[in-house]
Each structure stands twice: as C-alpha cells, then as structure tokens.
Structures
1.
Amino acid sequence: MLENYLPILIFIGIGLVVGGGMIAAGFLLGPHKPDSEKLTSYECGFDAFEDARMKFDVRYYLVAILFIIFDLEIAFLFPWAVVLRDIGMFGFLAMVMFLGILVIGFIYEWKKGALQWE
Amino acid sequence: MNFEIPNFMLAMPEIFVLGMACFILILDLFLSERSRVVTYLLTQATLVGAFLLSLGLYSSARELTFSDSFVLDPMASVLKLAVYAAVFMVLLYSRRYLRERGMFRGEFFVLGLFGVLGMMVMISAHSLLTIYMGLELLSLSMYAMVAMQRDSRVAAEAAMKYFILGAMASAMLLYGMSMIYGVTGSLELGEVSAAVAGQGSQLILIFGLVFLMVGVAFKLGAVPFHMWVPDVYHGASTAVTLYISTAPKLAAFAMLMRLLVDGLGALQPQWHDILLLLAILSLGIGNVVAIAQTNIKRMLAYSGISHVGFLLLGVLSGSPEGYAAGMFYAIVYVLMGLGGFGMVILMSRAGFEADQLEDYKGLNERSPWFALMMMFLMFSMAGVPPFIGFWAKLSVLQAVVDANMVWLAAVAVLFSVIGAFYYLRLIKLMYFDGPLELSPFRPSPDVALLFSVNALAVLLIGLFPSSLMAICRQAMGL
Amino acid sequence: MSFEQILFYLFSGVLVLSAGAVITVRNPVHAAMFLVLCFVTTSALWLLLEAEFLAITLVLVYVGAVMVLFLFVVMMLDINLARMREGFARYLPIGGIVAATAVGIMGLAVGRINFGLDVWPAPPARAADYSNTRELGEQLYTTYVYPFEIASVVLLVAIVAAIALTLRTRPGTRYQKIEEQVVVKKSDRLRVVQLESEGRK
C-alpha cells in the first residue's frame, strides 16, 4: 500500500529542495545591507502608529469555530460515501441521524443569529 | 458482513434524553424571556421521563447491545436513576439562584441535559471508546457551564484551568486506552478482560493501566490529581458547582468500575496498589487542607476529595461487597454534597454569595431550623451516627477490614477524625458565635423546603440505611 | 535498516524537534507554524502505519482548518509576549526533571525489550489496492454506530457551547433583512409629489 505514496514523498523532497534552494540562493546571491530604517515595518511611508496586534471581536472566532465543527462533520462523510453500497440501509440511516443532530445545531446557530453580521 | 441490528429498546432513556435535549434547544429559541420557565420545566420533565424509562427497564439481567459497546446491568440502572434524581435536585436548587444572576438561560439547561446524557453513556459503557465519548460529552458540557458566567473573572479562570487540565487528563486516559487496545486487540471490555486474563500482568498492560488511572483519578478528583477541584468549585457559580460536584461523581465511579473491574479485573493486584496510594493521599490531603480554608466552597471541595478517598477504599478492597460499599458511598456522597452546596445556595441572595465561613456565624439566632438542618448535614459528612454518612463510612471500612487491611481502616478513621474538625467548626460558628448581620434570615420557600427535605433525608436514610444498602448490593450481584 | 524505518526515524526526528520548537520559540506565529510541521510529520507517521484516512484527515482538518484559525487568533490577539514567557525559566528545572523522568520510565516500559518488533511482530504489509477508508467505513457506521452518534452529539454540544460563550447581541444593532429588501416595491420607497410648475417671473 505504501508504494502508492512514493510520488508524494518525491514531491515533498522536490518541494523542500526547490523552496529551500530559492531562499538559500536569494540569501547567498542577493546584496543585503540592512539598516534600521529598512528593517522597520512599512506603513505607507509613515512611522508605524501602533502594534499590529489588537483586540478583536470574538465573533470572528465564533465563525471560525463553527466552520471547524462542520469541517469535522464532512470528514465523517468520506468513509461513508466509500462504503455506502456495503453498509446497507442501517449505515445510511446512521448517517442521516448523525447529520440530523448536526442540522439541529445548524438551526440553533442560524436562529440564534450567530451567522448574522452586524 | 456479520452485523446485528442493535436493540434500541435498551438505550431508550439515552435516546429520550437526546431527543428532548434537541427539542428543548430548538424550542428555547422561540420562547420569550418571560416564558423561559418552560425550558426549565421541560428539562425537569425530561429527567422525570428518563427516570421512569430507566425504572421500567430495570432488570437483574445483564444485557449487551450495539455490538457489545453498551451494557445495561443493575449497576447501570441504579446509577442512572441516582444521576437523574441528583440533577433534578440540582436544577430545583439553582432555579432562583440562576434567575437572580441573569444566568437563567436555555443553554444552561440544555448543556445540563447533554451532561446527563454523557453520564448515562459513561455509566452504560462497555467499550473503551464509549467510555471516552461519554466522558468527553460530559466534560465539554461542564467546561461550558463553568464558563457561562461570562462577566466573572473567577469563573473564566476556573473554566480555563478546568479545560486545560481536563484536556490533559483526557489525553492521558486516551493514551492508556490505546496501549491497552494495542496489547489486547479489542476495545470491547469483555474481550479486553479475556485477553488480559490470558496474558497475565504484562508490563505494557500495566503501563496502559497507569495512564488510565491518571485520567480516572483526575475525573474523580483524587490526590495528586485534585488541583483543579478547589479552584473550579470556588470559581464556578454555586449552581454550576452544585452540578459538577455531585452527579458526575457517580459517572466517574461507574467509569472506574467499568475500566478496572469489568475490563482489567485480572490486573487487580496492580490497580489495588495504585488505588491504595490515591486513597490514602486523598484522605490525608483532603482532610488536612480543608481545615485551612475560609471559603466554604473550597472547604467542601477538599471535603469532597477526602470522600473520594473513602469511595476508592471500597473499590480497592476488590470484593463485590467492597464495590457495593463504594457505590453506596458514592450515592450518599452525592446526597450530602447536594445538601452542602445547597446550603450555600440557600444562604445566598442577589449580590451575596454566602461563600465565606463567616457568613454562617450565628445562624442559630437568625434561623434555628436551618442551623439544625445544616448541623445534620455536617454531622453526616463527618460520619457521626445515626446519620447516613456514618453508615457509608462504616460499610466501606467493613469491606477494607474484610480484605485484611485493618491498618488501612485505622488510617481512614484517623483522617476522618481530623476531618471532623472543620465540620464541627462550622457548627460552632453557627451556634456559638454572634451573627454578623441581624436581619432575620428569609430564604425563598422552594429552596428552603428542598433543603429541609435533603437534610432530613440524610437523617431518615441514616436511621434506615438497609434498603439503600440492599439496592447497592443487588446492583453488584449480591 | 529498511527504507521505511529510515523514513520513520526521519519523520519522528522532525516531529520531536518541531514539537520542542513549538514551546521554545519566541514568536507565537512561528510556534504555530512549527505545530503545523508537527501535524504534517504525524500524518506521515500515520501513513507509514497504513492509516491513510487518518493521515489525510489530519492534514485536512487540523492543518487545513484548525491551524488556520489558530494562526488567525495568534496573529490578531493582543498578547504580551514578554509576560507570556514569564516564569518559563523558573519552572524549567522542575518541569524538566518531571518530563525527563516520565520519558525515561516510558522509554524503559515501552522500549525495545518489552515492546520491540521481536516481542510484538509487525502485521504484514497490505497489498497495493488496500483501502483503509473502506475498512474504516465498514466498521464505523455499523459496529461502532453508538460512539459514532455520540460524536455528533459532542459536535452539537461544541456548537451550543461556542455560541453560548461568545455570542453577545448588542441592543440596537441593525441587520440587513434580505427578504424585506427583495419584496420591496417602488411604492414603498418612492413618493412622487406633484408640484405646481411655476413660471419664470
């Protein structure tokens, strides 16, 4: 089975060589004479006003978390789709139940306004 | 493919609770703030319905279904009934408390129900995977419940600690399970048990056992995995503390029994030693550190740790009598814990948490009846006859003595004598110190009634302990 | 040493080093990137164990979704880097001793003598057309249907918990009401007023 994945390994190797090689070549061949002005972050020619880090509305994370939950749910669908013919009605209904429970979660978040943007 | 359609009837209570929890979750969206009480009533009705269903399914037989990953035996039935009853009382106690603090929200009850479902799954689990899933369901609900009081910094801190430590403990448990699965080649506890018996005490099995024990000890809150207990009990709002300190202990006891007795019964000599260490440390540290506490929630948390030590004594004696004693202790502890934190809820009012020991000073002058009820509870926790706590301690000690460990019984008695100090101190504060405030004590009638019933139950069951003991013995097949 | 063993040691070496880097590098963004490297190498290890579905899921869900969120949080959050590292040196000795002891004991217990390939022989390698996903699917939706359904309940609780803990509706927020926008008619928005025309004076 593992022999199927040999191409991926080769690609990883090529990727490492190409990616690493480019950075190394740039580092070795390009001129670099850094000074303090060059090293500051560029903000339209002004001095940087403040730190890039700031307080962020927790809502953004909520959307991201909800995305991850449904992403995980999708992961369960792949093996199911592969064996759908073999597992019969029971396996089909098992997934219907699984999705049904998550649909309840979806109704909840929709109705609750978690998907609304202000 | 040889696959048997599972017998859904056996899991009817679980299915019912799940269905109702989903229904309540959706229904709550359509309720206005004024009719929120419907959510509460439906939640209570769900618990009653599940109680009746489990009662109807009670039989002395042991039945497996869902490809042997689900078991319904008398122990499962009894523990589930106790869980419903405990959570029912928790919600009764906390209704007014939640209202006064603006926490009377549908999510609280829905998460509570999902927690109950997690406990039911754990109690009826017959495979490593099911135990883990049930545990995660319960833990996730509890983390969210602790964090729900969003404006409170202590609650957020408690939730954070609980979540991080709980995730670590789950990881340990999972690692141990994976080791045991690797050696035995099965997740199902019956097959694990057969494989373990065939292989004897392999080093890898013991390795897995150690990690399992870390996870279980954390969930029970046994020393040295107890650090979260006082912080979480203290930081969470009292209603949530009431929830997490009572019913989940029953589920943790079931998890202990399923893993150690049903699954790794052949390793009894090994887990006996581990439990011995956990029990002695819990008794010692729980009782001694509780003396130094000035916050009653922290004090009760340490007292809970010492009670867990007692519970472990029953299990480690390794006999069905000992298991029955452990189960009896667990149920009694839940009853007393309900009373203990119920007392804090009773004393509290909007803007006043009543979680300092001083708040109880001179309660006798303000309300002799409640002082008396609290005295009952404290005596019971300390193990003074004829209260129920005494019989629980006695049955556990009897099992320990029967297992030829008289010294251990002596150690346990010694520590509970030390422990009696802080219970008696509270009684002294109530009866012999002057009150800090002179206003008459006017608790809300429903909580007052419930608390009185709770405290009187501690006395009454203590006078007639044989029926509850008989149920526990029957559950263990005696 | 076979080729697979060389790969195993290569990937686990990278895994251990990058896991160490996660907790020691100064910049949290770099730490998150090292965590991504951890996941990728773990998935390579899983692939060596012929668990291809898990390997792919790990990359898909953890690297693809969880780490993106993580990086997002780490980049945006207002964290004080200096304060975060406070106490690291103080707790390093005791933490190091505990960790070293635990690793030592674990190494002794599951090391070569007790858990080596001569004690627990490796299962034979699978044929090229073996599908781990199929194998998993056949079990997951039938034999393990009970834990499978509980998994969906856990996800549901995660949804409820995430919303209950983070959602805060402010009063007076205005939302777009798409259905109202769609059904709107000209007469709702437009008022035609007849004005007397006035001649130039």
Note: The mean pLDDT of chain B is 92.
2.
Amino acid sequence: MIQIFKDVRIDWLANRRAFILVSVLLMLAGLASAIVRQATGHQAFNLGVDFKGGTVVTAKFKQRPSDVVVREALVKQGIHDAIVQPVTDKTDTVLIKLPLAGASETGTQAEVESGRARVRGALNTFGAEAKPDVHLANDPSAAYEIVGTDAVGAIAGAQLRNKAIAVTLAALVGILMYIAFRFEWTYGAAAVIAVFHDVLVTLGFFSIFQWEVSLTVIAALLTLVGFSVNDTIVVFDRIRENRKLHRRDSLYKITNDSINQTLSRTVITSGLVFLSVLAMVLFGGEVLRGFSLALLVGIIFGTYSSVAIASPIMVWWEQKIEASNRAMTLTLNAPVKSGVPRPAKTTNRDAFVPRTNKQSSRPGRA
Amino acid sequence: MKKKNLLQRSIIIVAVTLIGLYIVIGPRHRPTVNDFKWSGIKSSLRSNIHLGLDLQGGSHLVMRVKTEEFLKRLTEDNASAAQNAAKDAGVDVKGGHAETGPGNYRVVVDIGDAAKATEAKDAIQKKVELGDSSIWSYSNSGPQLSWKMTPAAERTLADNATTQALNIIDSRINALGIAEPTLQTHGSQSSHQILLQMPGVQDPERVKEILKGESRLELVHVVSPPSPQPSQTYNTEAEALASLNSGGTVPSNRRVLPYSERIEATRDASTNPEQKPKRWVVVELPAIIDGSELRNASAIPTRAGGAEEFEINFSLKKSGADKFGAWTGSHINEYMGVVLNGEVKSIAYIKSQIFDSGQIEGRFTKQSAEDLALTLRSGALPAPIEYLEERTVGPSLGQDSINSGLTASLVGLGLVVFFMLFYYRGAGINAVVALLLNMILMLAGLIIFGATLTLPGIAGIILTIGMAVDSNVLIFERIREELRSGKTIPSAVDQGFGRAFITIIDTHVTTIISSLFLFVFGTGPIRGFAVTLVIGLLVNLFSAVYVSRTIFIWELGRKEKVESLSI
C-alpha cells in the first residue's frame, strides 16, 4: 500500500504563535490594501458589472464572430471583465456589458460614451464601423455598427449585498450551534473564527491583486466556508474521540496527535480539491477566473486554518476555562468528585486536564 | 456479513440507481425506441435539466415605468384632498383642479374670498402634504391658490417611483420562483427603464402580466342609503353623475367608478359574466384604507361557487386594522366597496365592526386569483409599466466560458478518479462508483425539485464532490489505520466505517444546517448554491457510506477467509 505519511509526530501547537502571526499579517495586508485604495480614491475591490452597473453596448455585425473571438478582441483592448451575450433571436447582434471604469457608482453620459469608445476600439479589429448616417446593410466597407449604448444599473445592489452578508452570518450561527451541541461551545467558536479568517484572507487577496469581484465570487466564498468547516470538524471529531480514549493525556498532546492522525486525509482531500480547482483556474477561461481564484485561495487557507487557527484557539480557550474552574474549586475548597482524574503531573506549560463533567455525561458512541 | 443482507442492499442500490438514471436521462412521456438512442437521451437530458440565465440564456425584457402617471395621480389626489381640507376648515371653496403634464404638475384651488387666502393655505397645508416647499412651490393670485411641483421634485419623485417599481417587480419575480433573474435599471436615469433578464420560463406571457399588474387595492365607502335598502348603483355613468347634483362635474370628495357586479353563481351558461353590463357607483374620496395597509392576501375557493371559483382573502396590518375597525364600527349597515385598479369589485353592507380582514369577490379562476393575490402581497406598483423591448439572449457567462469550464471540470474529475484508483487500488473503485452514483442522483434530485442549475449551483456541486471524495478518503484512511493497529480485515472495515461515519455525519449535518439557512433566507445565487448542496450531501450519505460499504461486504463475502484487502 502506498502511503503518504507514516506515523507523523509534528508538534503543531508549538508553532501556534507563528501561525496566528502569519494569519494576522495576511488579514492586515488585505485590510491595508482596501483602506489605502479607498483613501486614495481608488476602489477597495474591483467590483464587476453585477455589483456596480456599467454600460451595455449593442453591436450588429454583418457576420457575427463567435463569443470567444469577441471576448479575445475585448481582452486585447484591456477590457477583461466584460459580459458577452449573443442575442439568439437576432443572430447578427451581440450585447456587450462592461463595468464602469473607476470608483464611481452611477453611470454618467461621459462614462457611457467612454465605454462605447472602448468597445469600438476592440470591434474595429473585425473591420470598420458603419458610417453614422448609413445603415449597416448599405455600407459595403463596414463590418459592424453599434446600434445602442445604454447605462445599466447594478444587478446586485447594496440591498442584496447586505442581505447576502446577513444570511451568511445567520448560517455561521447555525454552524456554531450545531458544533456546540455535538462538541463544546469553544469548538464551535473556534471553527467559526477560522471560517471568518478564511473569508477575510481571501477577500484580502481580491483587494491586493484587484481580481474582479462578481456574483460568482460570492458563490465561491460560500463554497470555501463549507470546505473550511468540513476540515475543521474532521480534526475536532478526532480530538473528541481521542479525549475519550486517552483520558490521561493533555488536550495539547491530544490535539497534536489528532492533527497528525488526520494529516494524510487532510493532505489527500485538500490536495485533490486543490488540483481540481487549479484545473479550473488554468482552463476555465476569463469569465470564471474570479470564481476559481477565490476557491483556490480559499481551499489553501481553509485547510491551513483548521490546523493553524481553529485548533490553537480551541485549546487556548479550553485551557482558560479549565484554569478558572480550578481556581473556583480551590476557593470553594470543595471535595473533588470521585473518578475525576488528578491534574497531570507533567511540567509542560500547556498541560491540560480534560473537563471531566462533560466527558462522563456523554453517552457512548452508536 | 450475511448473504441475505447483501442481497437486500444490492436490490436497494440497483433500484435507486435505475430510478435516478431514468429521472436524469429518461423522457417525460411514454418511452419510444428513439429515446434509447444517443440523440434521444441527449434531448431528454436537455429538457429535464433547467439551466439558468447564465448557462443557457433566456428572455431580455426592457420595460418603462410610466412615472408621468404616478405624478398625475399624485397631483390629482392632492388637488381633491386640498379642496376637502379647505372645506373642512370652513373656507368657501368654489372649485379646484389639477394640471398635469410633463414639467407642469400643479394643484389649483379656487376660494370664494380672496382675503381668506392665507387662512385657506394654512388649513390645507396642515392636512395635505403640500407644505413641503422642496416639492411644492406655493403661489396665489387673488382667490386662486396654486402649488406647483418643482422640477427637482418631479425628477426625484419619478426616480423614487422607478426604484419602488424595481423592488416590487423583484419581489414578484421571487414569489414566482423564477431562478436567478437579473434585474437592473436601464438607459439614462430620466428614462425610467428597467431591464429584466430571466431564464426560459414556461409561460412568459403570464409572467409579463403578473409583473405588469398594478394591483391598486382600496376599500371605499359607497354613497348609498343604508341596508336593508339595496345598494345604490346606476345603469350609466351619466346617471351616476346626475345623482351628484353638481352640474356634471364630480366634486372633490366623490368618485364615480364602474362596478362589475358579481352574479350569483349558477351553472346556467346563459349568465356569462363577460356579457353582464357594467354598472356604476358613486364612492367617497378619500378611500377608507388602501393596499399599503395590506398584510397578506391569499386565493381561496368561493364557498357558493364550488371548486372552479375563487376569491381573495386579505388581512390588514395593525395600523390599517385600527383605522378600518374604527370606521366600520361607526358605519354599521352602510355599504362598503372593494376597488381594484379603479374598478369596484364587490359591494357589501357592514354587518358588524370589521377589523383586519376582508374578501375580494369577482369570479376569479384559480390561476387569476393566485396571480392577483401574489401581486397584492408584493404591493401595488406606483405607476403602470409598459414593455418596450423583448428579445431572447444567449447565456450571460458566454458559451465559450461554459465550454472551458466544462473542460476544466472534466480534467479535475479525471485527476480525482486517477488518484483514487492509483492510491487506494481496489478500494478506489468503490470511491469512483460512489462518486458517479452521487452525481447521477444529485442531478435526479435537482430535477425532482425542479431546481434551475446556475453557476452558483455548480459551485454547490463542486463542494459536494469535494465532500464526497472526502468521505471516501476518511473511511479508507480509517480502515488503513485499523489494519495497521493489527485488526483483522473484516473488523478493520467494520471499525473504519463506524468511526468515519461519525465524522461524516457531523460534517454533513453542519453543512446541511448552514445551507438550510442560506436556502430559507437567501435570494438568487445564494439560494441556488444551497439547493444543490443540500441535495448533494443527502445523496452522498447514501452513495459514499451505504454503497461503498455494500461493495466491501460483497468483496469480503466472496472468500471464506480474507487474507488481503486492496486499499
């Protein structure tokens, strides 16, 4: 049998400060990019036509080129984020939507004109435009004409954006509740913090590299939330199991062991998904690029965060609770219940004794 | 494992697979020989799976909000309200009118005594919203008071009406369940146009009618002697006008409206509702309450008319119910009318105080009643809309992007299959079978629920496939671990599935819970994502756990003594 990892013993938690530092730096970099761009009059995010509206140019051809060719011509002119939509009941016509240039939110006449000029520049590669006063059919030297230029508003206005955020937050609360029910509150909180981290880092990449944010990117962000939570739960599930099997071990050790035991699964699953998404980045074409890039970044950080963010936060939190419980016990000087293991005798600074009340109350596995 | 158990499992799996396959590639009519040929399968597949606007294209509708109608109505309402207010304050009002035309929206009130102009103005502005000087500029010459709408206000009000119409159309499209349309303003700001693109719908004319429906609902006091006298209606508009004794003009506190009288339901074909002549009634202005006070509306069968006839039940919000309750309480036995889009639909006398509900009767069919209820719930359009342009368009993602996306997905899938077979050998076959079955059943699920597949939906499929692969990896890694710890093969398989199942349940339930939130509260792309994800994960519990397990049982059951397992 081929095996990637054999009996790994990496002390992941020892590096937790470095991990968290890296994550905080990444988030700060994204935030800084957004703030600096906003402050200097640029756009924090490169929003696509879905979010801020733009110009729709209706072009009529003598011989309509295919969508690919039209898009290539646009890309050559530096228009990367246009939507090319053929009109199917008039086979000579194409709608080209392009987002507003710059940070403005409403389309002025000048914006519409500049959009028209940019499209004209691209379409001139197919031949000359018909003269303004001559119909396309009557102008033998012309290849196309622009029959209409209109400003269009955003599809996803601020209202939809806010709703999307609110709904996602509600979904995260749902996740928190379920994990709290199946594990502990601390596990749920740690998982949700890790998810937040993944989304923020991914958005940071979008701001830093000015990748276009379209509605499809929203779908990608939802997907990465799913992946990240999935990954985190796999590790937590192993921790829950190991705590029952090895009651004398510290949570610190158990967490490290659990990460190591699930490591080959983590690498295989994330690796496979990563490769599939990489295929999409490479072969998926211009329009899907934002979507596939968001997934690519999200999968890397979703995997990273379940090891480097969620687990350390959970361990830290549990230790805090344990410390305060112990302090309570000392002040009350209450007799220790029978069956409760004594504090571990190791001198490890991260030594931890599992919370016993929860353990004994949990029913056995089905 | 017992043989009987294996047989039972196999039968279930084969049956589910066949049903799933038929749902995905089978025709929706009695199958013919042609349906089993490649071209027949392809065409069935195409008609079974609904693709969204981004993947397949659809219709492209440009509509215009007739904002001038909105401004006209607003001015006219203010004109009659102003006259009433002045009369209520004891001012002698000679007359008044509204001037409406682009660039000139004016409310004019003529009073008897020029000296009382300021008094009348104050009285009117106290009650009617004419006092806001950013909207209405007041002037008077002698006994004539006039309020002219400022050009800036004309623009703002028209823009607001357009935005409001956009929101109402949006909620109607959502209520119709049209998957992921795009809705945006179109043209320059002063053109008040809205662009709607939606994927191919079955009955576009009905959708267009619903979007157009103004659905202005009013409850009015009908001028008539109280019950037990019958309600006062007139055969012609002229007769109704004559009853007002006001020299042929309608006073500011009255309206003359057509009344399409409801015929008592009979089976008699001769009483065709279309041929029943219209009657006319005089009603009081302003209305008691209007549609903005509506809380809910629903279509229900009319008791008398049997199943084919429907009426609309509506209920009012708290504020409307208070107003309505107070009014009906003090007008027992008088007649009240339900007015829809300027036509009286029904008249009834008030038996006792009514608070928060009522009916609209009017011989509706089931469909027309449901459509009307839908538009009432979404609110009245501020102004009528007209369709300017209608086209069909190709996919908004572009066919080229869809093709390259498809290529990329196949490359990705190929990588996954190759790796699973290479790394897990024999067990890899389990994973690949489970994965394929998952995809077939997921598509079948989408078809059963009539979901429309869009790019966000595909994102949901990607996540599902990722989690399906993950489920197999979890199980296989666990079995390997158990084998390493020295367990026998059957017990390692047993333990591996048992342990991994707990993890799989936790990951799946968490994701399903969060998707349910997205589905219930989300709109558009978020919802499309959630639908495929929930279906996919439910299917995965079957394919990755149950099916894969069955294959193992079969493999282990073949030999008397199991010495090796390809994993």
Note: Chain B has three domains: 3-56+398-558, 67-154, 213-392.
